[in-house]
Design a protein that fits this description.
Distance between the termini: 59 Å
Number of strands: 17
Radius of gyration: 21 Å
CATH class of the largest domain: Alpha Beta
Number of domains: 3
Strand order of the largest sheet: 2-3-4-5-6
Order of helices and strands: EHHEEEEEHHEEHHEEEEEEHEHEE
CATH superfamily of the largest domain: Zinc finger, CHC2-typedomain
CATH architecture of the largest domain: Alpha-Beta Complex
Length: about 260
């Protein structure tokens, strides 16, 4: 039997996060609707479950490390010393995706049926203020006022293999690759292609942030600033962000330090 190493798209389509976690020896500590909570996944000795997966979207979010993403992103976080090819190989091996070599009669072995996972669809975006739950979430973060005109309400849904639809909504902002970075009380993630977010301003000054919520908190206290803004959105973009930041004379980094 030959193990088949799946590419990134095949891993996302054929292997679910809960399947991989089960192969790694983790079982949900709590379940509520589409959310499953796990203990001690990315960090040991956690006092309570902080690692969550949304089984409808097949996305994860860790409340301690503030990391999130799909199954490939999880592999990169779980095995930090591996590159993406090694992560894909490891996932393929753990989930036993394999194919049998045809026998001498020429009959191929039965193909394993791919596990279907639902895909999200963005239905529409609206200005802030249309949905009270989103308003209350942003108010709880202390950024409601400054978020007006900066964030959108993003409405999206998934349809599973049984044609069942479930709707979701969140606050969100668009990255430069067309994806939507969404935030709500129970979920953080990216819908579509990942990317950074750039807001042009002063050509000589740049303020660099890990996420848009941090940017808005800063903006609230620095409303007069005309700095250009670069929101990294995901840790893997830090090298690219540093390269772009090098083109500016003055950079305010994630920690608020200035580098002329």
């Amino acid at each position: 039997m030959i193990t088949t190493v799946l590419n990134a798209d095949s891993v996302r389509e054929q292997i679910t996060l809960d399947m991989l976690l089960s192969r790694l020896g983790y079982q949900p500590a709590k379940s509520s609707g589409d959310e499953q909570l796990y203990l001690n996944v990315l960090r040991d000795a956690e006092p309570s479950p902080t690692f969550a997966i949304n089984t409808r979207l097949d996305m994860w979010f860790d409340r301690l490390t503030k990391k999130s993403g799909d199954i490939v992103d999880f592999g990169m976080a779980y095995w930090p010393g591996f590159d993406q090819d090694q992560v894909l190989e490891k996932i393929s091996q753990l989930c036993a995706f394999s194919q049998k070599v045809p026998d001498s009669s020429g009959r191929a072995g039965r193909k394993r049926r791919a596990i279907k996972i639902p895909y999200y669809h963005i239905a529409e975006t609206r200005p802030l203020g249309c949905t009270s739950e989103i308003t209350m979430y942003l108010q709880s973060q202390g950024i409601w006022e400054i978020a007006l005109g900066q964030l959108k309400e993003v409405y999206y849904y998934v349809v599973d293999e049984k044609h069942r639809r479930k709707d979701f909504f969140a606050s969100g902002w668009q990255n430069e690759n067309g994806g939507w970075e969404v935030r709500s009380r129970n979920f953080e993630g990216c819908l579509g292609s990942k990317g950074m977010t750039f807001i042009p301003g002063d050509e000589n000054r740049l303020a660099l942030f890990m996420d848009y919520i941090s940017y808005l908190s800063w903006k609230y206290a620095n409303r007069a600033s005309t700095d250009s803004i670069l929101v990294v959105n995901a840790p893997e973009f830090l090298p690219a962000a540093k390269s772009r930041a090098a083109k500016f004379a003055v950079v305010t980094n994630l920690f608020g330090e200035q580098h002329p």
